[in-house]
Fold this sequence. Notes:
Largest sheet: 6 strands, antiparallel
Helix content: 10-25%
Order of helices and strands: HHEEEEEEEEEHEEEEEEEEEEHH
Radius of gyration: 23 Å
Structural class: alpha+beta
Number of strands: 19
Distance between the termini: 62 Å
Strand content: 25-35%
Low-confidence stretches: none
Amino acid sequence: MATDSTPTPSTRAFTEAVAEAEQIIRSAPHVKTEQDLAEGLDYLAGSIKASLHMVAAYQHDHPFFASSTGPYTKLGLDNPDTLYFHAYIRDDAEYVVTGRRGTTADLSFQVMNGDYSPSRSPDSLTAFDDRELDIAEDGSFRLTFGPPKPDAGPGYVALAPGSAMLIVREVFSDWENERPGEIRIHRADTLGASPQPVSAARMARRFDIAGKMLVSRIRTFLAFPEWHYLQLPVNTMTEPRPTPGGLATQFSSVGHYDLDDDEVMVITVPAAGKDVAPYQGFQLGSMWYVSLDYINHQTSLTADQARVDPDGKIRYVVAERDPGLANWIERTGHRRGYLQFRWQRITRDLTAEDGPEVEVMPFGELPKRLPFHDRQKVGPEEWAARIAGRQVAVARRMLG
């Protein structure tokens, strides 16, 4: 009797996971328009790419820093001003991180005990910024992460039990002038050795894990805003508070908006100043809990990019229609979405007085109700130059 000996495709589980993830996207409660669905499918495409990339980076013995999120693999209300990197680690091995400090506003390190899931966030086990590094005159630095040991000297970071991922964030405030640095990682006892070739069975396992990761990723970051955003009153923002997840050098303020096209939201916040927070940034996010297009549109602004009023405050104007103002934050067709401030490398805890005030008004009332309205005006040529500057800066950053 003849039998079917055709092997099961190694990608079967992954393709089934892609179909499941697409169904989750299509059935998301906020999908109301063709634009909503198109953006969801674009988010799915980036998530497919990221899941395959992250599985390939799951190398405890020969680790490397992988780009965690970026313009084309967005995740978790990604910050338009940040380069994210991660490497997978074990708590019983030593890892050496070397690099060169760039000129960005902040460089921070965080050790987590796992990844995000639909039901919980991972714990932050260690978090610090480069103020704790011994940086040489040429910008070079060296850190060692490993099990606790009594004779550890400067530059040694003890890994807590369960340590699983090292995350590095490099944060830009002045997109035009700041430059990224360099960073590398290796396991201390495998440098110079070569990993074993990957077998076909191992590749099949990678596809299987990538599929599970993809579905979990989509489910997790559709559920995440319910915990931290959507239970807040609409068109409001919280006081500054330590960012959930334990990033020790960051405070944040969050909210969500719902605006008609003839409405504008004016968000007023003090410019923190470099002595308080060298990085201060604001952004919008879509209902997919990812950044809007920050390359071709001004959907975010740092304190360095914003026009500060004479009273020391920044007034962001969130609107669909163009108000002809320097601090216009473009909604790009998104009636609903998320609002996020971040302050990083802070030198003190922030209070309510450091945070935002929110006011919604008719579009036509802006000239008489927005303080320093005339001072904020920009013409079409200046606006085009602003967008061109963003496009050039991101392109240069991604090749930095």
